[in-house]
Every structure is written in structure tokens, then in C-alpha cells.
Write the C-alpha cells for this entry.
Amino acid sequence: SKYEYVKLFEQNITLLPNTWLVVRVDGHSFHRFTSEHDFAKPNDIRSLQLMNYAAQRCMQEMQDIVLAYGQSDEFSFVFRRSTNLYKRREAKITSTLCSLFTSNFIFHWKRFFADLELKYPPSFDARAVCYPTDQNLRDYMSWRQADCHINNLYNTAFWSLVQDTSNPRTEREAQAILKDTDSAAKNELLFTQYGINYNKLPEIFRKGSTLFRRLSEVAASTRDGTSEVKRTKNLVVVEHGDIIGDKFWQENPQILSI
Amino acid sequence: SKYEYVKLFEQNITLLPNTWLVVRVDGHSFHRFTSEHDFAKPNDIRSLQLMNYAAQRCMQEMQDIVLAYGQSDEFSFVFRRSTNLYKRREAKITSTLCSLFTSNFIFHWKRFFADLELKYPPSFDARAVCYPTDQNLRDYMSWRQADCHINNLYNTAFWSLVQDTSNPRTEREAQAILKDTDSAAKNELLFTQYGINYNKLPEIFRKGSTLFRRLSEVAASTRDGTSEVKRTKNLVVVEHGDIIGDKFWQENPQILSI
Amino acid sequence: SKYEYVKLFEQNITLLPNTWLVVRVDGHSFHRFTSEHDFAKPNDIRSLQLMNYAAQRCMQEMQDIVLAYGQSDEFSFVFRRSTNLYKRREAKITSTLCSLFTSNFIFHWKRFFADLELKYPPSFDARAVCYPTDQNLRDYMSWRQADCHINNLYNTAFWSLVQDTSNPRTEREAQAILKDTDSAAKNELLFTQYGINYNKLPEIFRKGSTLFRRLSEVAASTRDGTSEVKRTKNLVVVEHGDIIGDKFWQENPQILSI
Amino acid sequence: SKYEYVKLFEQNITLLPNTWLVVRVDGHSFHRFTSEHDFAKPNDIRSLQLMNYAAQRCMQEMQDIVLAYGQSDEFSFVFRRSTNLYKRREAKITSTLCSLFTSNFIFHWKRFFADLELKYPPSFDARAVCYPTDQNLRDYMSWRQADCHINNLYNTAFWSLVQDTSNPRTEREAQAILKDTDSAAKNELLFTQYGINYNKLPEIFRKGSTLFRRLSEVAASTRDGTSEVKRTKNLVVVEHGDIIGDKFWQENPQILSI
Ligand SMILES: Nc1nc2c(ncn2[C@H]2C[C@H](O)[C@@H](COP(=O)(O)OP(=O)(O)OP(=O)(O)O)O2)c(=O)[nH]1
Ligand SMILES: Nc1nc2c(ncn2[C@H]2C[C@H](O)[C@@H](COP(=O)(O)OP(=O)(O)OP(=O)(O)O)O2)c(=O)[nH]1
Ligand SMILES: Nc1nc2c(ncn2[C@H]2C[C@H](O)[C@@H](COP(=O)(O)OP(=O)(O)OP(=O)(O)O)O2)c(=O)[nH]1
Ligand SMILES: Nc1nc2c(ncn2[C@H]2C[C@H](O)[C@@H](COP(=O)(O)OP(=O)(O)OP(=O)(O)O)O2)c(=O)[nH]1
Ligand SMILES: O=P(O)(O)OP(=O)(O)OP(=O)(O)O
Ligand SMILES: O=P(O)(O)OP(=O)(O)OP(=O)(O)O
Ligand SMILES: O=P(O)(O)OP(=O)(O)OP(=O)(O)O
Ligand SMILES: O=P(O)(O)OP(=O)(O)OP(=O)(O)O
Ligand SMILES: [Mg+2]
Ligand SMILES: [Mg+2]
Ligand SMILES: [Mg+2]
Ligand SMILES: [Mg+2]
Ligand SMILES: [Mg+2]
Ligand SMILES: [Mg+2]
Ligand SMILES: [Mg+2]
Ligand SMILES: [Mg+2]
Ligand SMILES: [Mg+2]
Ligand SMILES: [Mg+2]
Ligand SMILES: [Mg+2]
Ligand SMILES: [Mg+2]
């Protein structure tokens, strides 16, 4: 029709070929969302597991995602450098993945929050970033995991002070106490005042969650169903270890070599 | 941390100031989604109403949306030209609105599909486009409504042929019959063979749905609750009329004048 | 060849259709260039005329330029909103015009600087900006002309103080004297100390130069060369008047109506 | 002033960090330019030397250019991946380099075309492209050199046929003769019909020109001027060898390692 010319106004930004594509999804106003849904503080394990589950579903849907890392209300997805998904169109990739993550988060909510109804529909934002080298990509991952560590240590100390039953502090007081303390001091405070050995807290809280594909043996039944056999499948696995050091990357060379 | 430099790789594309921003959201693989959920063909009224409801919620959340138009599995949202939402950052606007629409679509699913469970989580893509003039914007809206008309007339004829109980055609046959027919021929076929007066079909099918804000009188109770008063509120209303001609725009001058 | 894939890495940014395209060219390090070539201060008429001449040549080469405005070491070129030059590819338009302007500036140098050899090759930068409305475009033009006025008034006062033969000031002193003075004070200083009526200075210094096309009668000879006739031609004319007020635009409605 | 808001309409596209930046400059309508200036066909050595000289000057001005490659009417400049020139703003880099190259081309024209006046000011276009890996960059360079080879072999055969004094062909005939011939056939034709051993033609025609920096010993006089000493300086050198194979890159590891 004579109106079709308006389609030419679309910009169609594409992402530089042969770079790692990272899409980071982050909960929109999750300060409010977590508070209205009474999430445990500083970490609600149900929420982290739901996030992981939703991310896993995204990876099953989009085979070009080779790695994902989640913490707090965010998840980063890494597409292999050679991906040609949607011809690398920025808006298509970003919006579709953001929508898919949102959708799975809500769809599977009740699986992790059996007793808690969603009060209102949560949403997420997303952005795509290109990283030219493996080192840049690893630095990106390190950035997010370091952020997880810093925030979690702070939040653990903060909520310990505020939820201290014998000597509860206001949020303002807790903030003042922690202001200008370094990591050591926060560890110390947690240990001496609350008997918490920070390094013994669950890794999922301290290190976040890393999802990637690994060839794994799975049990399968033969076609006639009479006996069990082992098959290898490229499964998405979830870990909570360190991804800043070299070890993780050496043990999983398939991630960067794709 | 020493990793923070990676944030500098973000591009932060912004949308040209003083232009109408249109974000179009479109169902991802809704051919499959509608078929797996047995949507009525060619139009499932529940689906259209759910889409409208979700769009309305988006407009309530984002006050800078002045107009929205929906048909089939898509919705277009128009932000006022002067909007400074997220400093007009393309990815933030597109991803947030796409996510919010997705979220509301699922969250309110059961309100419109009382008897039908969602089988899997649906998703949407989204894109932002800038239109410099009112005329360009109106041509955009006309483009979508003309598309609605053309597709709906075709689909109505197509499914009439396929679902014809006395003489059912295969999809391939129906396609062949309709190939190269013009609008008049399709109208004729519908009327003579199926007694369908196309122009009498519900406007929501033929024209789609237009959402906009209008100062409306609403009943409210006084503070002490003893008596009723009228208040004017800027409500989001839904219409299904023509938006290609001038009439709609003349009757609602507030839309473009914001 | 197998290397051709590298062409796909080109981004091909395009400029939004139906907007005024402005390309502003600005002398690279002209502080140094004007000083090494002993330009008259604050304005060297030869330089301004060379700039205008080069700009005129650009307009003759690129018919889609409807307007140009120059002052100091810069020139802004306005392409009609409907231009499809290089399919509105940003880099092609910007680089080609920048190069063409540079080229003409050097090529015609001796026409205006008959006695002065170029000491080294000058260069320019350029950028493209889109303006959606006539008002935005006029505000852009006003911005540049206001900038011309402010700088020129300041520079005139500044160099009067520094070049004052009876009481020469250092550049630092002149700067200190002018710091925090408003327009009125600078006018006053020029008049009382140097007998300069600022408003009587040549318009080309105070208002810059505006180039645009106007249907003009030109003398032409008939084919057989025996007699003279008048023809109308769309000539590029140069003016130095105000372009902030409405008058210029009302007298030249052809500029914005193209 | 109240007009300054228009500055916000500038887009400021930046080029992805940590990628090789290539800016390719190409003569605008050099088909016409070379023909109006009667350039020797297919190669005018004066033109190639002027291009090289201009490129060298650009490299002296912009220290972040580590490599340049020229052939025909084009030159490609490679900026080191870590360059922060103009904060990697695309328009600033592209336009400035394009202008500088143009400027040097004209400024130094007479140095290479002593007897030939420029008839009109030539211009160039330019574009920037990012390459994430060394391999991509080398493929880019190979692409340009392969292009040089293919065009030059074709043009040499073409102009031999057209300029054949004993049996001159029209351009159309020459084109028809060469249509669908491979490299071997063109070599054969040149050798048997014109006694030209293509591989003995000057390397600058067949391979183009590669400019890069190399630590070189230069003669210098001591401060008191009494004696000569050797100093090492990072000079821009020009070569015409193969850059597709590994040899060039192995012999000049400094280029990619910067
Ligand atoms: N209580 C609780 N809060 C959480 C948990 N995970 C995330 N949050 C909260 C803490 C922060 O307020 C918020 C995440 O921080 P953000 O910087 O993303 O801020 P927010 O989402 O509010 O704003 P945004 O829309 O992203 O700019 O979510 C959790 O497991 N438990
Ligand atoms: N039965 C039925 N189908 C519908 C209804 N509304 C939309 N659809 C279907 C018809 C089309 O197959 C599809 C929309 O067309 P699209 O061009 O958006 O294709 P689709 O979403 O499959 O692919 P996409 O991911 O958008 O490229 O949704 C409805 O009310 N009833
Ligand atoms: N003496 C003299 N100087 C002039 C004349 N026109 C322009 N200039 C000088 C004054 C300024 O130093 C300079 C223009 O200012 P810019 O802001 O463009 O600075 P410049 O070109 O040095 O740096 P840039 O590369 O543009 O960032 O050119 C003139 O007619 N006479
Ligand atoms: N006779 C002669 N012609 C040359 C020489 N170097 C380049 N040329 C001509 C051959 C081609 O016609 C032209 C370069 O081809 P291009 O593809 O760049 O085309 P052109 O510059 O005409 O158009 P463009 O503005 O780049 O699209 O320049 C030379 O040394 N001698
Ligand atoms: O949202 P923040 O504050 O954690 O930081 P950001 O995500 O980089 O900021 P934005 O969402 O505005 O891009
Ligand atoms: O999806 P289509 O085919 O209706 O058309 P489009 O939305 O313009 O195509 P794309 O989704 O690939 O941008
Ligand atoms: O160059 P300036 O300082 O006059 O201002 P600008 O041109 O807006 O700055 P830039 O050249 O860095 O875009
Ligand atoms: O100019 P061409 O035809 O050699 O090829 P190109 O430079 O890739 O084309 P364009 O100048 O239009 O980008
Ligand atoms: Mg954020
Ligand atoms: Mg958040
Ligand atoms: Mg967050
Ligand atoms: Mg689509
Ligand atoms: Mg769809
Ligand atoms: Mg659709
Ligand atoms: Mg500048
Ligand atoms: Mg300047
Ligand atoms: Mg300037
Ligand atoms: Mg070209
Ligand atoms: Mg060329
Ligand atoms: Mg060329």
C-alpha cells in the first residue's frame, strides 16, 4: 500500500560480527518487587532458583547461547561469536530474549513460590553489548561476579545489623556502620557479632550461578523400552563456583572454543 | 574494580529527539502459539481482548504513551514526541515495554482464557522507530490498519473455505482459490457462498483496536463516602473505528497535540 | 574472493528519512592555522570570503543543499528533508561534503590570498545531525548565528584591548577585563575606549554568511549570439543579514518549502 | 542560549573499543578525474606516488595509524586497536582523516604533477569499519590487495588491447574479449600478443603500496654539528610486496603487536 514507505524508517542496527554478544537482562524496579513479595533478605533462594530455571529455558530455546551468569535480579547471556541469530539485529535479539526470560520467570513462578501469588506482573530491561576478545568477555564475567561478591557481602552485613533481634539497627544506622568498611572488616563484623563465617555461606549467594553446556552421560531406555543405556547429551548445567580465575575456563574449554 | 572498563563497550543508542517514537511489539512464532492453543480462526476474541488489556496496562504504567494500536499478534505504542523516558535510550525503552507487555499478557491470561491453561510461555519481539512528522505517524497507523484489513479479509475467506462443512477445502486449495483475487472478489465469495456480509463482521476484527487517553467523567464518592460526585479523569479508552481517515484525529485532537 | 566477507563488517548508519540534514564542517585546529598564516584579528575578510566561495562550490555540486551558513572556521549545510543522497548514508554524506569543502578551500586559496602561500595543508572535521521540524532547523541556524554574535563581540573587544597601541594589554589582562561583562558592557567599552560602534561593523563579521538559492534574472545571449535576453536561473546568493527573526524566512519561503 | 538544545540532536556514534579501526578513503568519481587529467592507463605512477605521499603525511599527523595500504584511488588506514583518538567517535575520525588526506593530495599535487595544473578540486569519501581479530584485519588487507591484483591484471590487458597501435580495439571489443577469461588467459594474452610478462611489471602496480612504521637507523649530526652519528627513529616506510601471506607479518611483528 501507499503507506508502506514508513517501514523504511526502521534503523536495523546490527551487532559487529565475530564478537561475543552479551545480553544482560535486569529486573525492572526489583527493589519494589522483592519488597512487595517479601523476599528473604538479602537473598531469597526461591528467587535465585526461579531466575536460574528461566535462564535455562532460554538456553534451551536459543542454542547459540553458550554461557549465562546470574545474580541478584540480573542474568547475562553470552552468544557464541559466530552467531547469526536474526542476522545479529540488535533489537530482535535483545527484545526476544528479554521477553522470553520474562515469560519464563512468570510462567514458572509457582514452581518456586508455591505459596505465594504474584501480586503484579514483573518486568525486565535488557541490553546487548559486543566483546571483541576472549579476555574482554572474561573481564565482563569477572565484573559481574565481583559485583555479586561486593553486594552480597555488604547486604549480608547490612541485614544482619538490621535484623539483629537483640540489638536491631535502623537501615540508616546499618548504613553508617558499614560506610567505609573494607571486605575484611565486614567479614570480621559478621563473624564476631553474628557468628557468621561468610565463606561458609552458600556459594549460590556468594558467587552467583553459571550456566553452560556440557556433554553429559544421561540414562536412556532403548527403543523397545526393555533395557537402559547411556547416551551423551549436551546438557545445560548450573554451577556456583569461581569464574574469575583460570580454572573454570580450563576445565570447560568448550565454552570459548565454540 | 579493574573489570569495570567493560561497561564502556555499551553503545547507548538514543532515539532522535522531537520525533514520535513508535514501539511495535509482535508475538514470536504466534503461528505455532495460536495453533497449539487452538485459537479460533481467523480471530479469537479472547486473544484480542487479552492483547488490549495488556496494552492498557502498559499505558497505565508508561504515561508517555499517547496512543496504541493492536491487531493480530501485534501492538504498536506511540510515545509523545517530547518524551524523555530513559533519556530516549533505544534498548531501555524497547526492552522494558516488550517485557512489560509480555508480562501482562501472561499474568492476565486466565482472565480471558478461563478454561485454557497456557501450555508454554509465549514471547514477543519489539522494535522502536522514529517518525518526524504527524503525517508520517498517521501513515504508520494507516499502514497497520490497512494491514489488518487485508489480512483479515483474506483470513476470513480462507478459513470459510477450509472450515466449510459441506465442501471443505484443504489449505492448499483455499490458497489457490484466493490467489490473485481482489477485495471485491473476496467480499463476493464470502457473501454468495457463506452468506457473510464482511462489513457486518465485528469492527474489532476488521479494524483492530485503538487505545488512547480521553478526559472522561467518572463517578466517585466524596471523602466521607456519603454521596456520589462526578470527577474528570484521563482514562485509557478502547475503540475499533477507522483511523485512516481524518475523522478520528479531528475528534481526538489531544492525541497529536501533546 | 574468500576475503570479501569483511565487507559485511561495515555498519552503514543511515540518517532518519524526512528530517532536515545538517552537516557542519569546522576547521581542524584553526587556532594554529590562522595564527601561522597571520590572519587578521578577529576577522580576516579574505578567509571569510574563501569559506563562502568554497561553500558556494559545494552547493553547486550538491543540488540537495538548500541553505548554508558560515562563520569563523565553520560552515553548516542544510540538505532538503526529502534528499536521498547516497541513500542518506551518514558516512558517505559527511565525508564527501567534508572532503569537497576542504578541497575547494585549498584549490581556491590563491584567489583570496594572492600574496600568501599556504604553509601546510589545512583540514576540517564534519558531522551530520538530523532535525525533525522546521522550528528545530531554525533554532539550529539561530544557535550558530547567536554563537557568531557572541564570539565576535567578545573577540572584537578582546583584540581591541590587546592591539591597543597606546595601552596594549596582554591576552591575560584582556581576558580578565572582559570576564563577566555582558553585551552592553562590551559595546560600551568598544565605543568609549576605541570609538567603535559595534553595530556599524561589517555585517559579515557580526552576522556571518547565509547562502541559499533564489530564482534570479540573469543576462544571457541568444543561441546565435546576436542579442541579449533575460533568463531566470536558480542562483546561489550570499547574504549577511539576520536569520534568527522571521523576516528572512518569510522573504525566502522557497527554502523551507522544498 | 535558548537555542543550545539543538546540540542534543547529535548522535555521537562511537566505534567498538579494542577493535582494529580501518578507515578507507576512496576518490570520488575518479573515473572522471583521472580521465580529465589524462592519467596514464591503467596506472599513472605520479598519481600513486602522490597518494602514497599524502598517506604518509596522514600517518605523521596521526600517530595511532599503524598501517596503511593504497591502490588505485583508495587508501586504507589502520588505527591500533587501543586508540582513543576522539574517544573513537566515528564522524570525527572519519571526517578528519578524509579531509587531511584530501588536503595533502591537493597541497602536494605539484610535487608529482609538475607540468599539470589541477583542473578542478578532487574529493574523496571515507568510512570506518571495526575488525575484532587480527585475522579479520589481515583478511581485510588481503581483500584490498587481491582486489588490486584482479583489477590491475584486467586493466593491463584491457588497455593493451585498446592502445594496441597495430590493431586497436574499441573499449567494447576489449571488454568482450576479456569477458569470462581467467587469470591464466589474461597473462597468456599479455605475453603472446604484447610481449608483456605481467609478473615483471612494477610491484607498485601489481601489489599496491603498504606503509608502516619501522625502527630505522638515520644519520644525524651531533649538537655541535661537528660529527655524524646514527640514531634510531620510528620512520614510516613504503613497500610494495605481498601482504596476503604470512611473511610480511612475521617480518614486521611490531604492526599487530602494538
Ligand atoms: N530481598 C531481596 N531483594 C533482592 C533479591 N535479589 C534482588 N533484590 C533486590 C535488591 C535490589 O533492591 C534490587 C536489584 O537492584 P537493581 O540495581 O537492579 O535495582 P532495581 O531493580 O530496583 O532498579 P532498576 O529498575 O534495575 O534500575 O533487587 C533477593 O533475593 N532478596
Ligand atoms: N487462529 C488465530 N491465529 C492468530 C490470531 N491472531 C494471530 N494469529 C496468528 C496468525 C499468524 O500465523 C500469526 C501472526 O503472524 P506473524 O507474521 O506475526 O507470524 P509469527 O508470529 O508466526 O512469526 P514471527 O515470529 O512474528 O515472525 O499469528 C487469532 O486470533 N487466531
Ligand atoms: N585571526 C583569526 N582567527 C580566526 C578567524 N576565524 C577563525 N579563527 C580562529 C579563532 C579560533 O581560534 C578558531 C576557531 O575556533 P574552534 O573552536 O573551531 O577551534 P579550533 O579550530 O582551534 O579547534 P578544533 O579543531 O575546531 O577543535 O579559529 C579569523 O578570521 N581570524
Ligand atoms: N587512468 C587511470 N585511472 C585510474 C588510476 N587510478 C584510478 N583510476 C580510475 C579507474 C577507475 O575508473 C577509478 C576508480 O574506481 P572507483 O570504483 O573508485 O570509481 P570512481 O572513483 O569513478 O567512483 P566512486 O565515486 O568511487 O564510486 O579511478 C590511474 O592510475 N590511472
Ligand atoms: O541500573 P544500574 O544502576 O545497576 O546500572 P546500569 O544498569 O548500568 O544503568 P542503566 O540501567 O541506566 O543502564
Ligand atoms: O515479521 P514480518 O514478516 O511480519 O515482518 P517484519 O516484522 O517487518 O520482519 P522482522 O520481524 O524480521 O523485522
Ligand atoms: O569543537 P568545539 O569545542 O567548538 O565544540 P564541538 O564542535 O561541539 O566539539 P567536538 O568538535 O568535540 O564535537
Ligand atoms: O564504490 P564501490 O562500487 O567500489 O563499492 P563500495 O565503495 O563498497 O560502495 P559504496 O561507495 O557505495 O559504499
Ligand atoms: Mg540498570
Ligand atoms: Mg533491577
Ligand atoms: Mg540489578
Ligand atoms: Mg516480524
Ligand atoms: Mg508474530
Ligand atoms: Mg504479527
Ligand atoms: Mg569541534
Ligand atoms: Mg575549528
Ligand atoms: Mg569553529
Ligand atoms: Mg565506493
Ligand atoms: Mg573512487
Ligand atoms: Mg576506488
Q: What stands out?
A: Chain A has a mean pLDDT of 97. Chain A touches chain C at residues 8-9, 11, 14, 16-18 (CB under 8 Å). The first strand of chain A starts at residue 20 and ends at 27. The CA atoms of residues 130 and 244 of chain A lie 19 Å apart.
